[in-house]
Amino acid sequence: MMKTSRGQGRFYSWCLFWVMLVALGVYLGLWQWERAVDKRAAIAIRESADALIEPVIPPAQGATVTVRGEYLADYTLYLDNRVVAGRIGVAVLTPLRDNHGQLWLIQRGFLETGPSRAPPSATTPEGRVEIKGEWQATQTGGPLYGDNREGVRLQQLSLSPWEPELGAFSYAGWVHASEGDGVLTQWWEANVMPPSRHMGYAFQWWGLALAAFLIMLIGGYRLRRDAQ
Question: Helices (H), strands (E): how many in the chain?
């Protein structure tokens, strides 16, 4: 009797363990499938975004934006630890006041600095300029270790370092400049994983869940038989 009871306990423990693995695999597969749907929507938004010239409304994510105005060169900061073709450097970030009085943040491109930690310095055109680039809405950065700002260097791209002196930017985001005055080497590109990859991950998780289910059945059958 005691042997039978112990065998039943092993059977139920076995089933509980594998049911949890099956449920986890199904959940992760659904999560990846939902991410694929979200990525399709994000790609559709980027592809359908209008090209805007001197906009006075918030641009859509991925919109091509042309702004005209003056750089605020004295407020240039640098996004640290950028690498282009094996070269170490920074991304040049300069606010711009457009012809409508709106304040924009322009990511002007890559400036090579090498391993030196001396403060970077980029030449900024004076007078009226025209910039064309892709709009990216503000995004949450990764974990920060210490302050975001160290001198003129930033660990993460954010609007907050300028706001105490310049006030709020007109729109929550920045222009990744690709053409125009003061534009340097491009390094940024939209990081949008293809939906097909997420779908592939989903099927992998569901395949693992199916394998776990079969193992649960086979092992459970043998444990049940031994208990009897």
Answer: 3, 9
CB 72 within 8 A of CB 54: no
Q: Please, where are the H alpha helices in the chain?
A: 2-48, 163-166, 195-227
| Whether the Cβ atoms of residue 177 and residue 188 lie closer than 8 Å to each other | no
Residue with tokens 């049940």: 224
pTM: 0.69
Q: Residue 67's closest CA among 50, 51, 90?
A: 51
Helix (H, G, I), strand (E, B) or coil at 116: coil
Asked whether the beta carbons of 109 and 179 are under 8 A apart, the reply is: no
pLDDT digit string (tens) for the chain, length 228 residues: 455 666 677 878 888 888 999 999 999 999 999 988 888 877 777 776 678 999 999 998 889 999 999 999 999 999 999 999 999 999 999 999 999 999 999 999 999 999 888 999 999 999 999 999 999 999 776 677 778 899 999 999 999 999 999 999 999 999 999 999 999 999 987 766 678 888 899 999 999 999 999 988 888 778 777 666
Distance CA 93, CA 75 (A): 9
Q: State how far the Cα of 107 lies from the Cα of 90, in Å rounded to an integer.
A: 11
- Give burial (CB, 10 Å; 0-12/13-18/19+) of 178: middle
User: Are 42 and 61 spatial neighbours (Cβ–Cβ below 8 Å)?
Assistant: yes
Tell the burial category of 3 from Cβ atoms under 10 Å away from its Cβ (0-12, 13-18, 19+).
exposed
Q: What is the 8-class DSSP label of residue 185? A: B
